[in-house]
Amino acid sequence: MNLNVLRYIIEVERSRSITGAAKQLFISQPNLSRDIRELEEEIGFTVFTRSSRGVIPTEKGREFLVLAKKAVKQYQALENYCSREEKDNISLHICVPRASYITCTFTAFLKKYAKGRQLSVNYNETGTLDAICQVSDRTASLAVIRYPDRYEKTLLPLLRLRELSYETICKFELTVIMSDRHPLAKASVLTPDLLSQAIEVVCDDTALSTYLHEAPDTEHNENSIHIHERGSQFDILTGVPGTFMFVSPVPDSVLSGYHLVQKKYQGPPKKMTDLLIYPEDYRPSRAESLFLEMLKEAVPK
């Protein structure tokens, strides 16, 4: 039994006219007549009869309309309840790479929308393979994953195999950040030779390359510090002289806050993609839609 048809017959009773009800409902009169006829065939009795006073309910029709009005009212109450719950609460579970532009967007999102609302939020900075697994088993609703462009031919079939949809958030080349007190801080561009004597801070994500049987990026300085948590990178860059790091473009607010500078790299390009992934049957909540809208506006240019 179609809820819309229940709404139709309630309007027919109010209008006492199929033609008048059709105009109010913005549907054609023949289609409305057909819908009522199919409903009457389904329930086994006539809901309306025609008279000199217009279309009026039969005795059984009146009883049916009372129940139909209750059903529609209860459904509207349920819709309002769900709408209110989403409005008053923010529920968001997302996996993301270690990226400053995403973190800044997430902070701005909470600042704008979290006040006065109950929060159920899980913001998980993790590797690409772990993010894929969490979205596949629906531990997370959606994720932004990061990978070198050369992985794309093997990665995208994996996503399709796991029944995940995807869309590109941004494509970019890794840039270099370092302390504004670094000896190379005033260089206009950085070459491999210039960086060869500096200390590279590396935050590896080797699980994906191993899983895809792809060669990992081995073009790191011999003089390097490997970390596994992004939270330590800024402390190292500002506190350990001569350190630098390849990262996605960093917002100016982060650079100034940590006294860092961002430089172009004039060497073999390190091309990357940030990809939004989600289950094929995924429908974003209001909170997720708002966050994604802000994220797409904040992508590195």
TrEMBL record:
Annotated protein name in UniProt: HTH-type transcriptional regulator CysB
Coiled coil: none
Keyword DNA-binding listed: yes
Keywords assigned: DNA-binding, Transcription, Transcription regulation
GO cellular component: protein-DNA complex
Recorded GO MF terms: DNA binding; DNA-binding transcription factor activity
Residue ranges of every copy of the HTH lysR-type domain listed in the record: 1-58
InterPro entries attached to this UniProt entry: LysR_HTH_N, WH-like_DNA-bd_sf, WH_DNA-bd_sf
UniProt similarity note: Belongs to the LysR transcriptional regulatory family.
